[in-house]
TrEMBL record:
Its EC number is 2.7.7.7. Gene3D superfamilies: 3.30.70.270, 3.40.1170.60, 5' to 3' exonuclease, C-terminal subdomain, DNA polymerase, Y-family, little finger domain. The record marks F16 as: Substrate discrimination. Poorly processive, error-prone DNA polymerase involved in untargeted mutagenesis. Copies undamaged DNA at stalled replication forks, which arise in vivo from mismatched or misaligned primer ends. These misaligned primers can be extended by PolIV. Exhibits no 3'-5' exonuclease (proofreading) activity. May be involved in translesional synthesis, in conjunction with the beta clamp from PolIII. InterPro entries: DNA/RNA_pol_sf, DNA_pol_Y-fam_lit_finger_sf, DNA_pol_Y-fam_little_finger, DNA_polymerase-Y, DNApol_IV, Rev_trsase/Diguanyl_cyclase, UmuC. This is DNA polymerase IV. The lineage of its organism: Bacteria, Pseudomonadati, Pseudomonadota, Alphaproteobacteria, Sphingomonadales. Its cofactor is Mg(2+). It comes from Sphingosinicella xenopeptidilytica. Binds 2 magnesium ions per subunit.
Length: 354
């Protein structure tokens, strides 16, 4: 019988904003947003002081300022964030070779082999967090569990600057107490659909049969069925490269006006761009997806000569693609934007991984 895995999910606390507050003491204790405060700007990251006001990443700058008029915008310095990320990943490498980065500021670590000879995975996570603080001046939170799904959920439980463990004997029961909106793989649209079906908690999800989930969620049903029971057999895989990043939304009503549809597409492009900035992964290919009121679907794609490295260019390509299907007589119920064909922004920076 194979040993129970010991998985740690490390997530830096408000990483970009914390780096800015570390490097500029005048920003400490103040609401800070990394991004550009211009009318068309988007928040890339927000400090905890800003989050109190409801400021979040991917939020338009004008909305963020409306929520927090004292918000201080700081231009992003991705060269600095990459350098700090390399420091953090060098620390990880002292504990395990099985490191699966999700972005510059979070990663899974499989410490089952216990390279450092520490008593428990809990102690290992504490040691890693202490070293990150000592060597970078930044805090990290950690989740410790026997699989990736639970470790990622656990790292949110004691944020900021804390850690939480989910043991094998508590995993399934703990999941039942959580809202499904917190589950990795359940986005806002899916969470809303689950709510309409009477599924709001892990317990609600567990009570649904696999046949019911397959009827309503198709290929995702097996994943939802497993995680409702605290099950996730995915290994920590340092070699699995993410192939695309996308965002889509279902409108409250079917849209036919060009301006409304284009606004929806730009909103999804902004979500994708926020992810690209955070991970520093930029793709050459942009795809726009459209689902009509009769559920027929079309996609339009275009590849640039090089990676799309600005929000403005992503907007330009997304608009060109959606305009290729406009005007429309049929109402549009969903639009999505995806970037693929990734290239690393820096040859020394690995691509983002699942």
């Amino acid at each position: 019988m194979s040993p129970v895995r010991k998985i740690i999910h490390i997530d830096m606390d408000a990483f970009f904003a914390s780096v800015e507050q570390r490097d500029d003491p005048s920003l400490r204790g103040k609401p800070v947003a990394v991004g550009h405060g211009a009318a068309r700007g988007v928040v890339a990251a927000a400090s905890y002081e800003a989050r109190v006001f409801g400021v979040r990443s991917a939020m338009p700058s004008v909305s963020a300022l409306r929520r927090c008029p004292e918000l201080i915008f700081v231009p992003p310095r991705f060269d600095v964030y990459r350098a700090v990320s390399k420091q953090i990943h060098a620390i990880f490498a002292d504990y395990t070779d099985l490191i699966q980065p999700l972005s510059l500021d979070e990663a899974y670590l499989d410490v089952t082999a216990n390279r450092r000879g520490l008593p428990t995975a809990w102690d290992t996570a504490k040691d890693i967090r202490a070293r990150i603080l000592a060597e970078t001046g930044l805090t990290a939170s950690a989740g410790v569990s026997y699989n990736k799904f639970l470790a990622k959920l656990a790292s949110d439980q004691r944020k900021p600057n804390g850690q939480f463990a989910v043991t094998p004997d508590m995993g399934a029961a703990w999941v039942e107490t959580l809202p499904v909106a917190r589950f990795h793989g359940v986005g806002p649209v899916t969470a809303a659909k689950m709510k309409r079906l009477g599924i709001e908690s892990g317990r609600d999800l567990r009570e649904k049969s696999l046949a019911f989930l397959r009827q309503h969620f198709g290929s995702s049903a097996d994943w939802y069925h497993a995680i409702a029971r605290g099950e996730d057999n995915r290994p920590v895989d340092p070699d699995r490269v993410r192939k695309s990043a996308g965002s889509e939304t279902t409108f409250n009503r079917d849209l036919t006006e060009n301006a409304d549809i284009e606004t929806g597409v730009l909103g999804q492009a902004d979500d994708v761009w926020a992810w690209c900035e955070k991970t520093q992964a930029f793709g050459r290919t942009v795809t726009v997806k459209v689902k009509y009121q009769d559920f027929t679907q079309v996609t339009r794609s275009r590849s640039d000569s090089g990676p799309v490295t600005s929000r403005e260019r992503l907007h330009e390509l997304s608009l060109a693609l959606i305009r290729s299907v406009l005007p429309t007589r049929k109402g549009i119920r969903l639009v999505g934007v995806t970037v693929s064909n990734f290239a690393a922004a820096d040859p020394d920076t690995p691509l983002p991984l699942f």
